Amino acid sequence: MKNKQFKSGFITILGRPNVGKSTLLNAVLGQKISIVSPIPQTTRFQLKGILNQQNSQIVFVDTPGIHLFKEKFAYHLNKVSLASLVEIDLILYVVDVSRPPGQEEKKIIDVATRQKSKVVMVLNKSDLGRKYLNDYIELWQGKIENIQTQDPLIYYIPVSAKTGKNIEKLKDVLLELTPEGHPFYDKDTSTDFPDKYRAADIIREKLFLKTKQEIPHSIAVEIKEIQEKERSVYVLAHIYIQRSSQKKIIIGKDGGLLKEVGTEARSDLENIYKKKIYLDLWVKIEKEWQNNSRILQDLGYWIK
Ligand SMILES: Nc1nc2c(ncn2[C@@H]2O[C@H](COP(=O)(O)OP(=O)(O)OP(=O)(O)O)[C@@H](O)[C@H]2O)c(=O)[nH]1
Ligand SMILES: [Mg+2]
Hints:
By secondary structure, the chain is α/β, with parallel strands linked by helices. It is 34% helix and 23% strand. The model has no long low-confidence stretch (mean pLDDT 89).
């Protein structure tokens, strides 16, 4: 019997902020690569999660949610999302069926139509009910099809990234649509996310989960030092915020909030490194970090 051909491909995950793109990536991979929070615009990187199976390798690209704000930093987030579309095999378009479609959907339809990419529409959060499911499907009716064969280039699948419902089925569909090809990465690689950005994101996730209103968006985390030794890792991180009033909140009463952030982040980092972590956190006021290209570059957020 002939050996099955190896399949490989790139899949970009697109969608509005907060629809569950990063949760979905982690569910598909069966491990936490990308941080998740209830606050929109959690993901700031274009980061890859790699699904290695017996005869296939699928590279998923998580992206910041596409949105319509106009600030410089927000502009970069959109740019990061759209830059991920170069040379991809498939768009995984995630929507939240518990909320009505937003204006951003049009932008995503435009991009997909222009690229003539195949689109798998993931109707996520179906565990919360399917009130708006058909509204999303209708938006795409007749929008993209293969001109020669009139075949639609869009597939729909309701899932719950949170409960895991239909995730295996989604993986089967994606594998089916992945072209034959060679692996791009070593089969043991699960992400291309550089350690220092991944560690910074883990700390930022804990801060996002513990702060409210405008504070999460004012936060950035920069890893100034990682020293890996045989049995332990020392990590020095700066937490940037924009105002001195925010500094008080982040440090918390008797340093309580910062301590909790440190404990939780350390536990996540210990799971990744399988070593003891020494975490040193410093809170700094950096008023203009969102408009400062040097800082954005150091944070890894800036792309040309
Ligand atoms: N009930 C339910 N909640 C979900 C599901 N998927 C994600 N969530 C929640 O939705 C929130 C946003 O999830 P994320 O994965 O951070 O969303 P995202 O699309 O990556 O968001 P951005 O990075 O900000 O664009 C989190 O609180 C998740 O726990 C789901 O299937 N069901
Ligand atoms: Mg995300």
